[in-house]
Each structure stands twice: as structure tokens, then as C-alpha cells.
Specification:
Elements lengths: L23 H13 L6 H15 L4 E6 L10 H22 L3 E6 L12 E4 L2 E4 L13 H4 L4 H22 L14 H4 L2 H22 L8 H4 L4 E5 L3 H6 L1 E3 L6 E3 L4 E4 L9 H7 L5 E5 L5 H11 L8 E5 L6 H14 L5 E4 L7 E2 L5 E2 L2 H18 L3 E7 L34 H17 L3
Parallel strand pairs: 1-2, 1-14, 2-5, 5-8, 8-9, 9-10, 10-11, 11-14
Antiparallel strand pairs: 3-4, 6-7, 12-13
The structure holds tryptophan and manganese (II) ion.
Tryptophan (TRP) binds next to α3 and α8.
Length: 450
């Protein structure tokens, strides 16, 4: 934090990827209203997450950050939220049971509504319109009206986030995430796959472990850790007016927190050292992430550490590398070395999705599970070579039976992509592919030296 940081100090700096509202007065009015609404999370929760992530930074835990590329106003239902939670719980169970490493579950959920775009406009049949920037900003429908940024969407996103978070809290604290229910998280279309069958073995093992503990005299009925799970929320802090409006001073410590989510991250396109996004997040107390693409240098990474975590707090800063399967080992190693030599505590997470996207012959933006897994392997190899801890992954997935990414033990083929391609942005792993990934990850984690 610079000494003259305020929730609005970012406004003096160049802010990339911001929507251009045709009606600034209307935007101002809506932002005031958002600023008057209750915070979505409490500062103490954000501090607790920092403590948890600190454990992952030190090699005592693993971050599982997962969810939609972009949440949608049109796919907002209890079932969709429940199904996403189910697959994240299943993955967490596989990771923890198979490797013995606790998984910190952070959703790309309850606020992941804004998207950076490589081009500000999109041209279809000679018509040029503003690009779709996520439901926080405009609609994906290709018409001038739909693509015009609408400030009312900030309020809609706030309310959808509140309702989503409320349901997540109810599910995770109210019995749905109970370890005696592991079998019930396995949905039909997942259970019938090789990964789903492997999952049933893990679930049976957990049943046995619980019975064993009870037989040993442990009171498994009343131990809350067995019946409740922690699930945290996160999104890319992209539209800074919205984030500022939800930034509040914590009455306990006097520090500022961005209360739109527990964890916020800075995207690859907005991580300029002298830019508005880095300035804004440098001053809030939340745990924060920063994406690092293949062009990131060790010098940039070090400067970001100094700027975003000058007090060197464990768990404050997560670097999420998204280098591409071919490049990850070579690009990441010098960064790992430089940051470690400088003594900066960083939680290293791997985003194996965004560096491995291509367009199929049918014109679908897609990813191959093999490339995703190969980037994760390269990420682990880089850490093995440098003696650092591969502390987490950052995945785009959905609980549904979609056909957006290729491959998997129940293989999605190029010809299948059109069947259920439902994403409003990037292609997501389906439930089966997500479990495939969890098993692969569990194997890598068990082998990694701690
Ligand atoms: N409370 C622990 C946790 O959140 C254990 C746990 C309970 C759990 N339910 C879970 C772990 C569901 C994974 C999935 O980690
Ligand atoms: Mn994405």
C-alpha cells in the first residue's frame, strides 16, 4: 500500500478494461447505491482465509480454486449452485483422502461476472459492436442495445452474489457437505464414468475411516470438522468502480477490505505495476491473487511482490501462473528462483486453462484435458526442480454434463463439442473431466516432497 492509498486512489491511474458507460450520472447513482448496501463478506473471514492460504504457501495445504469462467445471470438456480459445489467437494475429498494434504476450497463464484477482452469491439457480418464484458457490464446478445454497458447490472450482480453466497453458506454449514454424505455428491453422469467409479472407492474408504474412528471411541457425531466444510468466494477484481463501492473499513482493525468476496485476483491483462488494478488491490486487506502469463519476467514478479505484499505476510499473495503446457517449466523456474531468493512468501498456483485454449475446426473455443494435465505436470516439475511447493490450482469447471473441453476418461470428441456447449465465455471442464483432473493431481501431490 502506498501511504496515500484510499479506496478511490486507483482513479488517478490508467485503468484498463473498464466499461464505458454512456450515462455517467446513472453510473454514479448506482455506485452510490451499491456503496450503501451491506458487505457480502466480513473482514474477519478474509483474514481467516489469509491464514489458511499461508499454510498452503508453506507446504502444509493445497488451494483448490475452481468455478465458472464467467457466471451468468441466465443460469442462476439452486441446482446449478449445488452441482458446482458438489464437484468441488468431490475434488477436495479426492485430493485430501489420496494425498493427506488438506484442500482449501475457493470458488470462482458469487461475483465472477466481469471479463477482460482482447478487443474492445467485435465485428459480425460487417457490424461492429462493443465486446461482451460479462454480465456485470452487458449482455452477450449481439445487438447495440444489449452490448451497451448498463449500470443496473451492478445491482443485479450484487444481489445474485448475495443469494449465491447465502446458499453456499447454507449448504456447507447445514449438512450438505457432511462427510457422511460423500456418496450423494456423485451425480449420475459422473458416477457411471471411470473417474466416478474410482471416486466411489475413495468414498467407501472415507466411510471405513469414519467407522474406524468411531470404533476407537472418537465422538464422530459431534466433531464439526466432519460435518461442515469451509468454502470461500473469489473473482477477478476487474470493474474497479464496483469493487470500490464494496470496499469497507473494518471496525475491528481500521483496515480496508474489499467485501465483494473473500479473495480477489488481478488478471494477466491488468497487472501493470503503475496501473489502477495493482494500486487498488495493494490497499485492501484481503488475500489477493495475480495471474502471470508466459511473458512475465522474474523482475516483474519481484516488483509485484514488493508492491502487493511489502510486509511479507504468508498467504497474502498468490501467483497464479498460466503459461501454457509447453512453456510452463522454462518460464516458471526463473520466477520461482528469484522470488524464493528474495525471501518473499508466495503461494504458487497453476491455472492450466488459459494458456491452452484453441479454436476447433467447428469454430468452438476449446481446451484439451491432456494439455491441461500436461501444464499441471510441468508446474509440479518446475517446483520439484526449484525445491518449492506447488501450492494450488485454478480451474474453470462446472458441475454439469457440458461438452466444452476435449478429452477425459469418458472422452469428449471434437464432433461432440456442439452437443452441450453452454458457456458464456471460456470452455469449462465437465464433472467427469474435473474428477479425472483431481485424481491426477492427487497422484502428483502424493509424490511431491514436502
Ligand atoms: N471440515 C473439513 C474441510 O472443510 C473436512 C470436510 C468436511 C470436507 N466436509 C468436507 C473436506 C467436504 C472436503 C469436502 O476441509
Ligand atoms: Mn476464463
Amino acid at each position: 500500500m502506498t501511504s496515500n492509498w484510499t479506496p478511490s486512489s486507483w482513479q488517478a491511474l490508467p485503468a484498463m478494461q473498464q466499461p464505458e458507460s454512456p450515462d455517467p450520472a446513472e453510473l454514479e447513482r448506482v455506485l452510490k447505491q451499491v456503496a450503501s448496501l451491506p458487505p457480502l463478506v466480513f473482514a474477519g473471514e478474509a483474514r481467516n482465509l489469509t491464514t489458511q492460504l499461508g499454510r498452503a504457501a508453506r507446504g502444509e495445504a493445497f488451494l483448490l480454486q475452481a468455478g465458472d469462467c464467467a457466471e451468468s445471470f441466465d443460469e442462476f438456480s439452486a441446482d446449478a449452485i449445488r452441482d458446482k459445489l458438489k464437484i468441488i467437494l468431490q475434488m477436495a475429498v479426492v485430493l485430501t483422502y489420496s494425498s493427506g494434504v488438506p484442500a482449501i476450497k475457493v470458488g470462482r463464484i458469487a461475483g465472477q461476472f466481469a471479463k477482460p477482452r482482447s478487443s474492445p469491439t467485435e465485428t459480425v457480418d460487417g457490424v461492429e459492436l462493443p465486446s461482451f464484458r460479462g454480465h456485470l457490464v452487458n449482455s452477450p446478445v449481439f445487438s447495440a442495445a444489449a452490448r451497451t454497458p448498463d449500470p443496473e447490472r451492478l445491482l443485479a450482480a450484487y444481489h445474485q452474489s448475495a443469494a449465491t453466497l447465502n446458499l453456499l453458506r447454507a449448504f456447507t454449514q447445514g449438512g450438505f457437505a457432511d462427510l457422511t454424505r460423500v456418496h450423494q455428491w456423485n451425480r449420475e453422469f459422473v458416477a457411471s464414468s471411470p473417474a466416478g467409479q474410482r471416486y466411489e472407492e475413495v468414498a467407501a474408504g472415507i466411510d471405513r475411516a469414519l467407522r474406524f474412528m468411531a470404533a476407537c471411541g472418537v465422538d464422530t457425531e459431534t466433531e464439526p470438522q466432519l460435518h461442515q466444510a469451509d468454502m470461500w468466494t473469489s473473482h477477478e477484481a476487474l470493474v474497479l468502480g464496483y469493487e470500490e463501492a464494496l470496499t469497507r473499513r473494518d471496525s475491528l482493525t481500521g483496515d480496508w477490505y474489499d467485501c465483494s468476496a473473500h479473495m480477489l485476483w488481478i488478471g494477466e491483462r491488468t497487472r501493470q505495476l503503475d496501473g489502477a488494478h495493482v494500486e487498488f488491490l495493494s490497499g485492501v486487506g484481503n488475500p489477493i491473487g495475480c495471474k502471470l502469463g508466459p511473458t512475465a519476467t522474474p523482475e516483474e514478479a519481484l516488483a509485484l511482490c514488493e508492491r502487493l505484499n511489502p510486509d511479507r505476510v504468508d498467504g497474502r499473495l498468490t501467483f497464479i501462473s498460466r503459461m501454457g503446457a509447453d512453456q510452463v517449466e522454462d518460464r516458471l523456474r526463473p520466477i520461482l528462483r528469484a522470488v524464493t531468493d528474495a525471501g518473499h512468501p508466495v503461494l504458487w498456483a497453476c491455472d492450466p486453462m488459459h494458456g491452452n485454449t484453441f479454436t476447433s475446426e467447428s469454430g468452438h473455443k476449446t481446451r484439451h484435458l491432456e494439455d491441461v494435465l500436461s501444464e499441471i505436470s510441468g508446474f509440479f516439475a518446475a517446483h520439484r526442480a526449484e525445491g518449492t511447493w506447488p501450492g494450488g490450482v485454478h480451474i474453470e469447471l462446472t458441475g454439469g454434463d457440458v461438452t466444452e473441453c476435449l478429452g477425459g476418461s469418458t472422452e469428449v470428441l471434437a464432433a461432440d463439442l456442439d452437443t452441450r456447449y453452454e458457456t458464456v465465455c471460456d470452455p469449462r471442464l465437465n464433472g467427469r473431466q474435473s474428477l479425472d483432473l483431481a485424481f491426477r493431481l492427487a497422484e502428483l501431490l502424493s509424490k511431491q516432497q514436502r
